[in-house]
Design brief:
It is built from 11 helices and 10 strands. It is an alpha/beta fold. The strands form 2 sheets. The protein has a 6-stranded mixed sheet with strand order 6-7-8-3-9-10, with helices on both faces.
């Protein structure tokens, strides 16, 4: 598989705190990459850098559009926003922060379609209905307000609104965080089936080793802003080499 996204020696500080320290990685097309680590390890900051939400103070993020690599910094803010609207997607831990609660469920899906250039009302509504079905929400809820949805339904709605434009790359920040265990299992099954069926590339941040094992092809383990171990998911989790990874896998560390 060819490379889709690459981080080259990125570092970033928040005041005196070193959030990322000389981090490099690659993401291949159609690959699921999980980033794990305890709270404060830098995994969410790295996700925000890769998705263009933050600009690294040093180093660079390269996006391979076709066969040519272009720096997100060189592309500029407007071009990156265009990528985020159409070719990339982002699933936040809290769907309430990502969805508009003052418009209908169908309206939330339609808004992303319209941001990508869709204009025909009937087509937008039909597409929204199909995506509600795809994420296991009754089509009868198309005109309902998101505030009437459960937490699991809100997360499924966010996933529908993210995937409706057929992005090639999706970033996920703790997509099952804060949900009951039974609801988490349903969301993970949904993510796994949709990602595989659509052939997406995904970068997922999680503190849950079980989520990484279920979803990811490759795994990156972070500690104090650095990558301490990386490799195929089963290989890293079944035979961890770094002492920190060994502790993490053994659930000794708080996460």
């Amino acid at each position: 598989m060819s490379v889709l996204l690459e981080a080259r020696h990125i570092s970033h500080r928040f005041g005196r705190t070193l959030a990322l320290d000389d981090v490099s990685l690659t993401l291949r097309r159609h690959e699921i990459l999980a980033i794990v680590g305890e709270s404060g390890s830098g995994k969410t900051t790295l996700l925000n850098m890769l998705s263009g939400r933050l600009t690294p103070q040093s180093g660079d993020i390269l996006y391979y559009d076709g066969h040519a690599a272009t720096s997100l910094r060189v592309r500029g803010e407007r071009a990156v926003r265009t990528l985020q609207r159409a070719r990339w997607g982002y699933v936040a831990q809290d769907p309430r922060a990502a969805l508009r609660l003052d418009i209908s469920a169908g309206g939330n899906i339609g808004a992303r379609l319209m941001a990508s250039g869709a204009r025909n009302y009937d087509d937008i509504r039909a597409m929204a209905a199909r995506w509600l079905e795809a994420v296991e929400i009754d089509v009868d809820r198309l005109d309902d307000w998101p505030r009437t949805f459960s937490g699991g339904m809100l997360q499924r709605l966010q996933i529908a609104a993210t995937l409706v434009t057929d992005p090639e790359l999706v970033f996920m920040d703790e997509p099952t965080g804060g949900l009951d265990v039974s609801v988490q299992a349903r969301i993970l099954d949904l993510i796994r089936s949709l990602v595989r069926r659509l052939g997406l590339a995904v970068v997922i941040v999680t503190h849950d080793i079980g989520v990484a094992r279920l979803l990811a092809d490759r795994l990156i383990v972070m500690r104090r802003g650095c990558i301490v171990e990386h490799g195929l998911t089963d290989q890293v989790l079944d035979d961890p080499q770094h002492p920190y990874t060994q502790l993490l896998v053994a659930s000794v560390l708080p996460v």
